[in-house]
Structure formats: C-alpha cells, structure tokens
Amino acid sequence: xxxxxxxxxxxxxxxxxxxxxxxxxxxxxxxxxxxxxxxxxxxxxxxxxxxxxxxxxxxxxxxxxxxxxxxxxxxxxxxxxxxxxxxxxxxxxxxxxxxxxxxxxxxxxxxxxxxxxxxxxxxxxxxxxxxxxxxxxxxxxxxxxxxxxxxxxxxxxxxxxxxxxxxxxxxxxxxxxxxxxxxxxxxxxxxxxxxxxxxxxxxxxxxxxxxxxxxxxxxxxxxxxxxxxxxxxxxxxxxxxxxxxxxxxxxxxxxxxxxxxxxxxx
Length: 266
Hints:
With 266 residues, this protein is an all-alpha fold. The protein has helices spanning 2-5, 9-15, 18-25, 40-46, 51-65, 91-116, 122-151, 160-184, 188-220, 223-239, 241-258. It has eleven helices and no strands.
C-alpha cells in the first residue's frame, strides 16, 4: 500500500475507477481535476483529513485495489482531530477570505440579475457592464493578482494544486471575456450563459481555497513568511484602497436593488 502513496492519483483512478467515487465521498474532487498528477500522499496532506477519515479512506482504497486481501495500511499522516474542522487563518489568509466574502455576495445576487436582464434595456446593459467591471477589477486585478503574484510565488509553481487554481482563474476570465463580447452584441443568452458559467467556476474555486488551499498553505508557512505576506498584501491594499471601497459598495447597492442583503454569506 505504501507504493500507492507515491503514485499519481489519476493513475490510480484510471486503473481503479471506484477510487474516484470513494474520494468524492470525502469531498476530494480528483475526478474532474484536469491536472491530476498529485500523489495519493499529497492528497491526504493537502486535504488535511482527520486520522479517522484518513484510516477510513485508506481502508476503502485498499479494499478496491486489493479485494479480499489483508493489507497493511500506512500509519496515519494527519494529526488533525475531528473536532478541528473549523478553519483558523493567519492574518494575510484571513484578508483573502474576507475578500472572498464580498465576491460570494456578488455571486449570490447574480442569478437575480440574470433572470431580470433585458438585453434591450440600456439600464440593464449598464448594470451588467458594472458587474463585469467588478469582476475584472476587484475579483481579478485586486484579489487574484494578490494570489498569483504574491501568495503562489511562495511555493513551487509546479504543484498540481496551484496549477488547478490558476486554471480556475483562467476559466473564470474566459467566461468574463465571453460575457463582455456578448454584451457588445446585446446577446442576452450569451451573457446569461457566461455569467452562470463564471459563477459556477468561482463558487467552487473559492470553496477549494477557503477549505483546502489556504489552510494547507498556513500549515507550511513560517512566522516570518506570514509577516512578509501581511506586509506585501497591505501595500496592495493601500494602492487599491479607494477602488476597493467603490467595488464593495457596488455589491451592497446590487443587493439592495435585486435581493435582500446576503448577511449570512461568510
């Protein structure tokens, strides 16, 4: 079984497809991942499974790979207790999670914007234009740039998890570009399809970062690295201060116009 810990997860799933379904039970989405060269050992570490869950997962994989055989399982690598699922972030990571909260507020009201959108309405087109501006400027130029230019640079760029996160960013950008092109054509269906596509990509992406990537990074940072990140993020915040207020206020106005304030988004 130890040999399988050093095997790329996609290779294991390719030979034993039920392993993919088993991983999904533990909210580990390796099947749809387009990168997939993570080793099984990396999956366990990055997802920070409790010792109990790790044991259950490894027992299940052993049952699929070696049916009917008694297999010696590796010692659990995780030391997380089942009671520590609540996430605690370092100050720079907490700042990114707070930015996610504003993006999630925008995503939460987006379906109402799409449902009421009339491509013939100048006011509706202007609103979608402003929404795309929020995405390009706040979500991408401000938030994603912090991640790609500063945070991700602290780690090996070849890591699968970082490749997957960058890929999500690019998929989101592609939807935004396509929505902008559809807006120019007054193509309501194209706008709706790409805004829905963007929301789907970003909602899942944020969940992966908040629950998997950021906690894993925090576990690997030294106190010095945390301090350096905090200082570099603060410098970006200062440069973007006025625009940040503008875009966060825009989300509030959007909620007022289209829905009740999404106060439960955390």
